[in-house]
Each structure stands twice: as C-alpha cells, then as structure tokens.
Amino acid sequence: MFEAHFQTFEDPEAGVALTARLSAFREELARRKLTGFVIPRADQQQNEYVAPSEERLAWLTGFTGSAGMAVVLTRQAAVFVDGRYTLQAAKQVDTRAWQVEPLADPPPESWLAQHLAAGDRLGFDPWLHTSAAAERLAAACARAGAELVAVDSNPLDSVWTERPPPPLGPVAIHGPQFSGEAESEKLKRIRLEIVRLGVDALVLSDSHAVAWTFNIRGADVSHTPLPLSYALVPKDGRPTVFIDHRKLSNSARDHLEQSADVEEPDALAPNLTALAQAHASIALDSATAADALSRLIAAAGGKPVRGSDPVSLLKAVKNSTEIEGTRTAHRRDAVALTRFLAWIDREAPKGALTEIDTVEALETFRRDTGALKDVSFPTIAGTGPNGAIVHYRVTRMTNRRIAPGDLLLIDSGAQYEDGTTDVTRTVAIGEPTDEMRDRFTRVLRGHIAIARAVFPDGTTGAQLDTLARQFLWQAGVDFEHGTGHGVGSYLSVHEGPARISKLGATPLKRGMILSNEPGYYKTEGFGIRIENLELVVAADIAGAEKPINAFETLTLAPIDRRLIDLKMISSKELGWLNDYHARVRREVRPQVDEATKVWLDAATAPLTL
C-alpha cells in the first residue's frame, strides 16, 4: 500500500568487514611517506548532505552520520562524533580497529596532540577542510613536533576502487513565482556587501548561495535541491558561475547567461589565480571555502579575506513571495501529516506496524499532495529505545515493531517548490507512563515558551535558547542538541546563519524561518521531541519603545493531548495550545476525508484545567 521513493532502509556496510579497507589505506599512506591522515565527513563545499562519491568517512569506517571525522595513524585510528551520534557510532564502527571519541569536547586536535610523535607527517586534503580547520590541525601538529602536509591528491581515493562518479543532476530554473526577486536585484545587493567588505571580489563557495543568487535549483545531493557549483562575483563586471555543463539544458544555460558567464568547475582555479596576480583582495566564506582556495589566492599574490558569506544572511531573510510560498507549503504538508497521524492512531494499537511502515506511509501521504519533490531529510521514526537516538535512521536491521506502551517519535520534512518543511511529533501508543507525561509536558512547555516569545530587534538565538530548556532543567534533565535551526526556501532544511542554541550568535531578523524543537531522550527508554517551524514577524505591543519581534507558527499538525499532564501546565500555556489546535482544525479540516475529520476533531478538541 505504502512505499518510499526518496529513502532507503538498507543497512550500511558494518565495521569488521571494513577493516581490510583500513589496512589498504595505511599501506597507501606509507607509500606516500605519511604517518597519518585526517578524513572529514565533507565535500569541497562543506555540505551537510554529500554525494555518494564524497562519502569517504562512511566508506572507510562504516559511520554514516552527518557530522564526524576520522584520523588514521600508523598504530591508532579514531572516529570523532558529536553527542547525537555516540550510540550510532558504537554500533556501526568496528571498535577493535577504531576508538570512538567526542567531536567537540575535547576536540580531535587534543587527541592528535597526544598521539602524534615528533617527526610525524600528518596528511590532509586542503579541498575538504576550511582554513580555520587546517589551522587547528597545524597547531596540534606543532604541539607534538609533527608536520601537517597538504596533499595534492587524496590517498583514500586511490584505494577506493569502486568510488561512484560525481553527480550530474539537471539544473532547474527557480522562477519568480517562487523566488520573488530577480537575479539582477540580488546581485545589486551582493555588490553593496562587496563594497562594504572593501574587497575586489567575492567567491561563492557555498552551492546554496549560488542557487539562491542565480535562482537555480539542482539534484546533486540527497534531499536538498542543490546544483553543486561555485561563483565568482567581482565588484565590477559580470560574475562567473562554475558548473558542469552537462547539468545544463539550453533553457537553464540561457537563464544563467542573462546575468553571468558560465564556465566549467576546473576554470575556477585559473580565474582566481588571474585575479590574485593583480593583487586583488578576494572574500571567502570561512564556513564553506576550502583551504585550497586561500592557499591558491595567497600563492598567486592576492589577499584572501576570510569572513562570513554575506549571501547567507541575505538568503536567510525571506521575501514576501517566499514567505507566502512557505505558508502554502505548510498548509499542504498539514493535510499529509494529519492523514498520517490519524492512520497511526488507527493502525498502531493493532501491534503490526513497524518503524519502516511509518516512514513509507508518511512519504506516501506527502506524495499524494502531487507536489512533493523530495523529503527534506531522511525521516527519523524511532519507537521505544530507538526514539532516544537523536538522529536515528531506521534500517532493515534496526527496524522495530511499534508496541502498546511505546512512544513513537517521528521527525520528517518535505521539499516543495514553494517551501521546505520540517516537523516532529511524538505519539503515545496505548497508555503512556507518568514519567513519559512528565517529560512530554516539560518539553511542550519549553516549545510553547519559544512560540510565545517576544523579543527586541538584535536578540540572538542564544538569548532565547534557555526558554526552551527551563522546565527540563527544573527536573535536572536537558537535551544535547540545539533548540532550533534556520530553514531555507526550497533549499537546505538546515540553513545558517541564525539558530536558536547556546551557540546562536546571529541576531534574529523578520523574515527568518527557524525550527522550535526541544526534546528529551531517555537512553534505552524513549525519545520525545516537538518541532514546529516559526517565522520571525513584527510584534504589535502598545507602548513599545523599540522594534519588538515575535514568532508566527507555520507548522500545522496536532500535538498529542494524551501525553500532557494538565496539573503541570499554566492557563496561558493551555490557551496557546487550544488556539493552535483550533487553527489546525480550521485550516486542515476542509481538505480531509470524513474519517480523518472525525479523528482531527477529537485530536484538537479544547482541553480545560
């Protein structure tokens, strides 16, 4: 009945079988007179989702998470992962060959400083690390008396004999009905930023920035409509887009050539070299520009100027067309979500459903809208203890049956041409325990605190983050991920620079879209997360002495009332929830069948204290 077109459930190759790859890699390092090598989970542009040809970390170690790094030395090897992936890495990696270490605290550089010896030569691929990352590696080598060596070609690619070819997804034009602003207008704004930076040119090393600037989309990586590409925007004169011509139809090429010259990717280096030889200062995005670009510019006599890509902030503030498109996308998505939640409530108590069944069903309901382009990330559907794995991805091996008494955590999203969605709901299957209700209610109160927040212009995500955690902290518990990330407009579901987290230093501006997703995870027990997307809007406060902002909730889907402990919740919090559910009912009810209407009426009925 249901099937997934955009997701697979195959188990990745597991640890022990990969040990032969590690041996072959060590032999290649010895041949190149290297005593170690650093393997990041990265492509040349630091994308979150990378093409199969760039999955070096997964190929060598078995670890398939979206953030990580490995270091191979002559006698030791370590995989570094963050808190989201500690449980996953322990299951995927052969721990007899690899140590599993934290990615952040302490950082990998501490491990390197301890394990490198004087005279060691640690290799790295400068196309896969930012300059800041390369500098941290160099400092760690210096502390140990070792040398950091930038390689011309990646030694791992020499032993990866069946490496997939690079992707050639066709480029699509993202028309004005979705983008809301012509390329020429965007380029005018970017040139003002170039003048402000006091540089001669700007390199767009982030494919998201190229896609946004030139109103194109692509299909080179999973779940994000990215055309892998670069652009060079000079202070004066035409920009150049560097993209594999095989991806361009005649119409896509014509579209690009209206505002830019179009060249092959391997023309980037000579173009930069020519600019640098004229002693140009060239701005690079410190978050996505490969260290190789800085080296190339400096070697040719230019001045690399590292900083934040000005396009990331321009892109994060959505225009009125993008905002209206996102609202439409969320209303469409709400119908699929409501049909899905009604189906879960009907079928799960029978005891036959598995996690994979839920992923396939939800994708099918979304495809039924007729507008789904892709899921915006692989659906996280974890029941029971799997729900406690923050970035769990179900495979045929881990697939659990959903049992009465479980909590089902389902985090999913969709890519529609008019907007990107991301939503998490936690569903009680049968009767929840008192502990589940307590934790769910604390998470819900934190979620409502963010949704109801009002804050002056200039407020950062870090200043709001505590609102989401306060009720969990009161019980001595917390969650190990950020409260919210930025979301693109038919682009990445995880978009910078703004976020709601302890590290969120970018002020939130009207037009930004962020997630609101506090959670709680009991290892080997259950997981809880409640996530809606929020739009930053002007708040109307009588007598306000400065501009004040608030959030407009975009996501429309019932929150499980059975998991709320009404003794813990305030009348204002309950008022927010009842108002939200009334809005869900009003927007979704006319678009669903009679059986789903009955379920929706019950699921959104007002609660009283």
TrEMBL record:
Domain Creatinase N-terminal: 21-152
Annotated family: Belongs to the peptidase M24B family.
GO CC entries: cytoplasm
Protein name, as recorded: Aminopeptidase P family protein
Listed InterPro entries: Creatin/AminoP/Spt16_N, Creatinase/aminopeptidase-like, Creatinase_N, Pept_M24, Pept_M24B, Peptidase_M24_C, X-Pro_aminopeptidase_P
Molecular function, one GO term: metalloaminopeptidase activity
Residues annotated as domain Peptidase M24: 325-536
Keywords: Aminopeptidase, Hydrolase, Metal-binding, Protease
Gene3D superfamilies registered for this protein in UniProt: Creatinase/methionine aminopeptidase superfamily (3.90.230.10), Creatinase/prolidase N-terminal domain (3.40.350.10)
Superkingdom of origin: Bacteria
Native species: Bradyrhizobium sediminis
Domain Peptidase M24 C-terminal: residue ranges: 550-607
